[in-house]
DNA sequence: TTACTAACCTATTCAACGT
DNA sequence: ACGTTGAATAGGTTAGTAA
């Protein structure tokens, strides 16, 4: 069993291959949508056959369009200050008849669920073959199962969407978006405002990305993007960061220590990656403000590292892989540099 | 690089069915 | 009546693709 299998988050299983609907297909769907935005099973089946795509894809398309329609109606409501159009009287559409799974089928699904709660399309199709259940039903089965069997291990290992680490909440927005956008530069999000890359770049793209971001997802810290674009930003707040340079790896002082040093001696930066406070160009009150921000950042990073260690301790009982020893790298660091070897090494995770 | 959007997620609700 | 669980929905995010 490799690490990705253990955590179910280092490497996501592939999604269903994305299909692109052609104009003809779209026109047909739109025509049906205008007639009835909530088609019943028979209609969806008919459309699936006619358009040569699966019934679940038809359903997804209708879901998406209902969403769009609602949004449009909402906007019209405010623009025209008119009451939204009266909905057509809802005709009760026939539901798909309840699927009855045999004991054999259920056993196979449960077994698969225990191995992986988030099976990709390949796994679902294999399960469909093994059980004779349509893939779309398997997908639904896993959704229902996840909802009804949260499971502690999952809650921690997956670092469930509602983050359990209070220190990670970066804002108190009421409806936290569930994940840190993978596109967001965390350097930007975490940087004190006086750094050159502070959160001031509010070009359209950035605005869009920032608006989505409220909670840092530790799962994504470990997962990273696999392309090294933002991965290193997360690691080593308290621990030395080893980064590959032109002349081999070199060690950088931990971000936390840099901030701590700066807090103690704001005038000195001594090659730190974190710029010093600039007393010549900033009023004392402003510097005081930045010191406070530094203090908050420092506290945040401390919580972050403590929490991350506790999670790693739980995930990987063999301490040598994560404890801040003399020479060992943190697993994240190892993974960033040697993805193949670590997944092999860390195969000591307790089996279920 | 950006916009679009299919695929996917969780949370919630409805409803069939067995007890 | 109640619990279990498949099906459906809303509203959100992720990630592939075309422009």
UniProtKB/TrEMBL annotation:
The keyword Transmembrane helix does not apply. GO terms for molecular function: DNA-binding transcription factor activity, RNA polymerase II-specific; RNA polymerase II transcription regulatory region sequence-specific DNA binding. Residues 12-72, 92-152 form the Homeobox domain. Keywords: DNA-binding, Homeobox, Nucleus. PROSITE patterns: HOMEOBOX_2. It is found in: Nucleus. Residues 155-190, 330-352 have a biased composition (Polar residues). Residues 145-213, 322-352 are annotated as: Disordered. PANTHER family: DOUBLE HOMEOBOX PROTEIN 1-RELATED (PTHR46123:SF3), MIX-TYPE HOMEOBOX GENE 1-RELATED (PTHR46123). This is Homeobox domain-containing protein. It comes from Myodes glareolus (Bank vole).
């Amino acid at each position: 069993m490799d690490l990705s299998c253990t955590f179910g988050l280092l490497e996501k299983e592939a999604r269903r291959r994305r299909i692109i609907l052609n104009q003809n297909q779209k026109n047909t769907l739109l025509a049906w949508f205008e007639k009835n935005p909530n088609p019943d099973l028979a209609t969806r089946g008919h459309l699936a056959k006619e358009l040569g795509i699966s019934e679940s894809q038809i359903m997804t398309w209708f879901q998406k369009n209902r969403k769009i329609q609602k949004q449009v109606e909402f906007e019209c409501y405010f623009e025209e200050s008119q009451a939204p159009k009266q909905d057509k009287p809802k005709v009760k559409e026939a539901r798909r008849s309840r699927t009855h799974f045999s004991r054999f089928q259920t056993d196979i699904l449960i077994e698969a669920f225990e191995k992986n709660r988030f099976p990709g399309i390949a796994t679902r199709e294999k399960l469909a073959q093994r059980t004779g259940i349509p893939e779309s039903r398997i997908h639904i089965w896993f959704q229902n199962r996840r909802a009804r069997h949260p499971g502690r291990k999952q809650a921690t290992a997956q670092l469930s969407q509602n983050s359990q680490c209070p220190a990670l909440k970066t804002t108190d927005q009421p409806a936290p978006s569930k994940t840190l956008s993978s596109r967001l530069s965390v350097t930007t999000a975490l940087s004190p405002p006086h750094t050159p890359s502070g959160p001031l770049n509010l070009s359209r793209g950035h605005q869009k990305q920032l608006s989505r971001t409220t909670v840092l997802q530790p799962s994504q810290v470990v997962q990273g993007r696999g392309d090294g674009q933002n991965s290193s930003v997360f690691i080593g707040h308290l621990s030395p960061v080893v980064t590959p340079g032109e002349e081999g790896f070199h060690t950088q002082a931990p971000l936390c220590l840099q901030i701590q040093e700066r807090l103690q001696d704001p005038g000195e930066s001594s090659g730190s990656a974190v710029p010093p406070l600039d007393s010549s160009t900033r009023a004392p009150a402003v510097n005081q403000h930045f010191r406070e921000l530094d203090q908050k950042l420092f506290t945040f990073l401390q919580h972050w590292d403590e929490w991350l260690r506790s999670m790693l301790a739980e995930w990987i009982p063999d301490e040598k892989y994560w404890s801040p020893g003399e020479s060992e790298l943190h697993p994240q660091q190892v993974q960033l540099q040697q993805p193949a070897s670590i997944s092999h090494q860390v195969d000591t995770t307790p089996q279920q």
